[in-house]
Amino acid sequence: MVLIAFLVAVAVRVSVGSATVSMTMAAGIIASMPMVAGLSQLQLAALTIAIAAGGTAFSHVNDSGFWLSKSLFEVDEKTNLKTWTVMETIVGLVGAVGATIAWFIVS
Length: 107
Prior knowledge:
The protein is mainly α. It has helices spanning 2-16, 19-31, 41-56, 64-73, 77-106.
C-alpha cells in the first residue's frame, strides 16, 4: 500500500511538476481506495509520509522550487538538474524507505 501511494505521487509529480498538486492529487486518489477505510491512524500516517516523499522526488523544470533554487544558487538549468533534482530525488527515496519501515512497524 505504501509503495502504491509513493508511486501515484511520483507519477503525478513527474507529469505535472508541482509538489503541492502531486501530494494533494495522490492523497485524493489513495483516499478513494476501499482498503484505506480499515487502516489504523499510524498506517495512515505512514501513507502520508509515502505521499509526501513521492511528491518531493523528481523535481524538474515544471516545478517552481526548481526555478527558485536555480536563482538562489545562481546556477544554470543543467547544473540545477544535476544538483537540485538529484537531491530532491534522494530525499524522496529516503522518505519512501522511512514510510515503508514505519508501515511494517505499525502493521
